[in-house]
Amino acid sequence: MSPALMGGEYVVTIKARSYRPGFIYVVDHIDLGLIIKRLNSERDGRYLFTGDNQKSVPSAVIAPVTSDRITGRVIWIIGPAGIRRSRPRLPDDQLDFEA
To answer: For the chain, which residues make up each domain, given as ranges?
Structure first.
């Protein structure tokens, strides 16, 4: 999730009541385990996540996930420089589900 998150940083999450594109979430992925990704879009109750870094696991590998796999929304990031609020950001090129 670089540059939003750097190695060795910690995150504080809350249980999300709704899911909004641009925010960072923790996902309990069935194959990848716990991952931290940015929500890109939602369709038919399935959510597509992307990483901020080009070297991130591709969205095609992550695949759309259901809300029961989303464990929380990142609200604070704790690192060597201190504590900062997690900010929403929409990806430069919006991905979407394939038809």
So the answer is: 10-85
Q: CA–CA distance from 27 to each of 19, 20, 37, 67, 81 (Å)?
A: 12, 14, 7, 9, 26
Provide the pLDDT for residue 99: 39
Cα separation, 36 vs 74, whole angstroms: 9
* Residues 33/90/61/42 CA torsion (nearest 10 deg): 90
Architecture of domain 10-85: Ribbon (2.10)
Predicted TM-score (pTM) of the model is 0.87
Yes or no: say if 10 and 78 are a contact pair by the CB < 8 Å rule: yes
